Prior knowledge:
423 residues, alpha/beta, five-stranded parallel beta sheet
Amino acid sequence: MIGSGGEDDDERIAARTNPTPVLMGTCGWSGQQLAAWQGSQSASADSKKSALATYAEHWPAVEVNSSNYAIPSCSTVESWVAATPSASFTFAFKAFGLMTNKAVDPKALPSEAKARLNETQRGADRVTWDELEAAGGLELVWQAYNDALLVAYKGSQASGKYPTVAMFQFPLSFRPTVGIIGLDRPALALRTPGVSHADALTRAPPSAVRAPLARQAANLRHVLDCRRRLDVRCAMAVEFRDRAWFVGDAKRDLDLLKRLRDRGIAMVHADELLAETFPSKNPRAEGAVHKVLPISLDVTSKEFALVRIHRRTGVESRRLSEAEIARWRDRLVSIASQLDDGAPIFVWWGTEHANTPLVNGMHLQQALAGKPGIVVVRPAVDGSRPKRKGGISRYFEVLGITRGAKKKDEALPPREGAGPPRR
């Protein structure tokens, strides 16, 4: 479903008692990122300890990216919560890689879970979900992950406004069927001359190469099992990078939307480019440089929605065009019209280069300014932080955002964002 942001949607959200809050942020934070926003190269590795406090002066929420590579300790999350200026600052967490890939490097496991493995397993490159479960370590992984998220959840209870979200980004290899990009890919190519593997992902798999329903359902059962294991106080969102989940027959055959809705699992509205997701030697020849992959706009949770916008390469190309911003304005209106009264929409910018996230955020806020029933949430500050000058101030002064001050002796977090730069 592609949202139109039409008159009916406008009227529906304008009539609500509580407007739809839109909270924007980025996928992770770092000192280098902030230095680029401020037009300075002075940030060092040590300055990362103050990066979150600075970040929180300019965005009301953040997606913790490093939790994909290692589960943060409770004390680490406590320091992150302490570093933010307001109880209304909201954290979302990427799921630990084991939960989405069904395998992980044993060195990334919490120590209690790793101790359950035998010597051979601990020395291996990967340990699987099933191996860890058989060894009695899987529940310990989930316990560590839930404990970490609950620190952020409890830290936000003073405001009680927004959910603590766990975002499960399932990779391209996590398929609803095996027909399109698995064992039968050669067969598909033979049946469909001239169709690239990347383009095939955007189409429904032919019935001749679709997997039996029992095999289709296995990965969906895993998604639902993750919801069962995730603490009930945390919200869950899923991003299916393989578009076959929602383009074609799989969505209907699996009764996907109903199963997600019954459990309040939000399907992420992800915007990414074909050429970046499936790099080729000569993407321009295929006309794929700026081709956007299909975006799911099915709303499967009434309590919140989550948008992730990726532009991973280039410089100017990471800034959304006026037409792209307008399309996202209309999509957000459509999404908001399907949410409960006052339910939030999170928008994560995966467009890291210089000040690009700020520029994209500013343009989207300006586009939404004339839409009744939608309010872009501004960073909440405690009023005690000294005002700074620099690139961030310039951009947010345009938006009329008040900035606050940082106490010198404030507890600040350890480094976030360790691990590969993939978002």
